[in-house]
Amino acid sequence: MYTIANIRPFGHNVGNTAISFAMKHMLYDCFGRLVTIIDYPATARYETSAKAGLSKQTIHEINRFADGVIVGGGNLFENDEIDIDSEALKHLRVPLMLFSNSRGRIYGRNGQLEERSDVIPDQKLSNLVRKSVISASRDTATHNYVTNLGLKDTLGFCPTINLCDYELSLPALPKNEVVGALISIRTPGLMNLPISKQSAIQGDIEAAINALRANGYDRIRVLCNDSRDLDFAVQFKGSMKVDPIYTNDVYQYLALIKNASIVVSYRLHATLPAVSFGTPVVNITYDERAESVCEDFGILEESVQVMSAESDGRDQICNKIKEGGYCSKDDKVKKILWAKISATQKDLLNNFKSHVDSYVSNCKS
Question: How far is CA 41 from CA 47, 48, 82, 99, 352, in A?
Fold first, then answer.
């Protein structure tokens, strides 16, 4: 019997839980069902509990009863949303794996990529990577940054590409339920874009709704990954007669994406589940993190890049809706790439298991 601590983002976003859903099922495949996974929030910033991250309290607990600890996946490096006690970290005894974390830049007012003001400090990141037995970044941009610090890192990708392997775990929809078209949004004020680009987002979504209707999608709903998006989403109920929908239940969330007729997505973790399930998707990117992940998965060329100056983003969105979106079921070439990525991830987890087995064996001796 194994016990693995998982330090991951909780917060508001159901997309974080989608990552966790995929990763836990992959851990079950690797370790077998004889594994207990204990979740800790990566930061106490949004929690009432004092136990979070790699603090004195959590490291003490993990050393007492866990056989290994995984940090990730999520944007934990990008916005420094992981609490770490640097002194206590020195005394972590169990094997530590960093898996599928990202660190990306944002577009500033001049339209160029720049560092976030809340990014994880290099020293903190270095301490964490050096303590790990495996560091596997989610995307190339993060991987390159970590290795440029002189640290050992590999490319681990995002586990949500494997969601199709676990779709039998998702609930059946109510009888006669038609999901229809989903527009997965993010509140413009929370998008790190120049103000001129932010102010165009509402018009882009309205144009997407009109394009969906013009192309025969009768039922259209605005999907919120985050409860903070509801205030923005409700505007479309009044102006465009489109209902908002939000759930923090990852099973319901993934079932909606799997059964949608098309997903127009401003959310990476609506896009990647759609790609995995074979749901047609119009993907829209607006920061380095999403662009890097999509390039690694070979779908950036199928996406609308908000900051690209090549053509008007609104026209691109409407044209891709007219074309029916990107459907992974028709892309045999990319499926070969994704199979290789999945094999890489499984190898990384099996490597971690070997470290855990060695630690457990030494504890018993």
Answer: 8, 10, 8, 15, 21
Q: Which neighbouring-strand residues pair with 283?
A: 265
Classify residue 218 as left (phi > 0), alpha (psi -120 to 50) or beta.
alpha
What would the pLDDT profile of 116-164 be if each residue is shown by its tens digit?
Answer: 999 999 999 999 999 999 999 999 999 999 999 999 999 999 999 999 9
Residue 357 lies in a domain: yes
d(CA 248, CA 266): 18
Instruction: Region of 282 please: left (phi>0), alpha (psi -120 to 50) or beta.
Output: beta
Q: What is the pTM of this model?
A: 0.96
Counting the structural domains of the chain, the total is 2
Please name which of 200, 202, 203, 192 lies closest in space to residue 111, comparing C-alpha atoms: 192
Q: What are the tokens at 276?
A: 């995995």
The domain that holds 234 is classified in CATH as 3.40.50.2000
